[in-house]
Write a structure and sequence with these properties.
The protein is of the alpha/beta class and about 600 residues long. The protein is built from 24 helices and twelve strands. The chain folds into two domains: about 190 residues, no CATH class; about 350 residues, Alkaline Phosphatase, subunit A.
Length: about 600
Amino acid sequence: MLSTKLPDCIRNCSWDGLGLYLILLLQTSMILPSRPDRLKHPRWWALLVIGLCLGYAIVTVAVLPAWSLVLIVGAWLGLGWLLRWGKPANPRPPVRVWPWSLVPLCLWGVYVYLAESFGIVEIGAIFFHLQAGISDHGGSGRLLAAALYTLTMLALLAAFTWLARRDHRWRLADRLLALVLIASNPLFYSMGQRSAAIVTDDGAWLDRRYAAPVIQQAPREPPNLLLLYLESIERTYADRERFGDAYAFLEALGRRGHVFEGVRQLENTGWTMAGMIASQCGTPLMPAGLLHDNQFEPLGRVVPGIRCLGDVLAAQGYRLSFLGGASTDFAGKGIFYRDHGFDRILGRAELEPRLEDPEYLNDWGLFDDSLYDFTVEEIRRLEEEGEEPWGVVNLSLTGHAPNGYPAEACLERQGEFDGEDILYSVECSAWLAFDLIDRLEREGLLENTLVVIASDHLTMRVSAWEQLIAGERDNTFMLLGEGIEEGQRTRRQAATIDLFPTLLEAMGFTLEEGRAGLGVSLLGEAPTLVEQHGLTDLAARMHEETGLQQRLWEGLVPKGRREEAAGAPTQVVETPEDSADEARPVMQ
């Protein structure tokens, strides 16, 4: 009787209802003891806690349907009943021990939390945010989730310890299990690959392909630049079969300019600061790591060893502004822009006092309708104050995972937001960007201006996650403005590092061989790194790289360590094909 109703319950019951249903089903099937008083035995509660945690981890990491949790927990409890876990047939006296597996379990808990929060976990993102600073972040919802994860992990560790102390078989298997947990944790993959690089390569494969951004010729009348980063609004959403009309307003903008398809995401470019550095500096963001002198203090500079978009444009006389609704203290955003040629950096602290309604804020900061109002004001100011060209970089918030932050203007246009549907927020972000461009054009503020619309990175885990990862994903990248042919589409295997030279050439600047950083202009014919080597090979190379890391953070490397590195012998293992695409030395 019960089993025939399971599908209906899965569709319609709450998780509490499913949990009650599971207990009833297990009791009916004799998996649990039939006498109610035996349900009070601690081993069943311990096994239930472990089963729930195991099931949740599998469902999260493998991206399985939520109802799979019921099956996994049921199978786990059935195995526990069959093998008499916690109550062996030939029991031995309890032993007060602390299992070796406790620490590996904690590390797996960290990974599952990150996978549930962000979808794809990049170890580089963890290191960078720990060093660059996470003050004034907007993740109040994630703080609550972290607290719940912590309580769950404490329950898991207590349950595991209870079983290990009372069942000698768990004690015997504990050390082997600890090794399996460590070896299987994806957090350790890149660490192992970096260690292997010590004996397989000199760690400078990417660095040898780096080309300093040098302007060979500038246009007579350099255009202004408006660079709009749309938080997490990847071009994958353009697939109407999967996502309907969520991306429609960006498609409409694209028909007025040049759209680039196939812009993939390299490792160490998959979060906001990394995405901006990749597209403005032409390199992945390899964290400072142990190159940073003061490991427990926030970074005082961000990628000081290379020249980025702001440095190049400032040298050409541009007046540069950055505007974002979140705090510029988070993840070193303000430091990066101040260090690389920007005159004005406006974030939450600077813009919040200018709001008409001081309470119109989200967890991160300003909603994008407010931010875009201030963006229009900033462009008006730049137009009025001088004849030199200007550049404005703008970072939105509407599409921020997991649910987005749709503005009040979108609520009025689109109706009620359920708080979860990311496609609502994607449509909102696309419409707000469309409306901003329309307003600026009507005011005549985009004359001789290149408009660049790009996603900062692919989105992290959201309500449409299963549909997103069902096929290849690529970033939004389009150019609009005078001299940009309307309706043009270019499909190439590229990455966000290729945006840097592409937009410089789109502005009329000439680069040697169309290269800047590790990027290649998509307006030319030279092959990109992704076309030559593929994402998988590049990811492996990045795990082994130390040369580019030292270049990025030049100035933070202790003097003694630099001298030691310079005098150390190197071993280069490359084929002629590998070295064929290396950049020629360029004087900065």
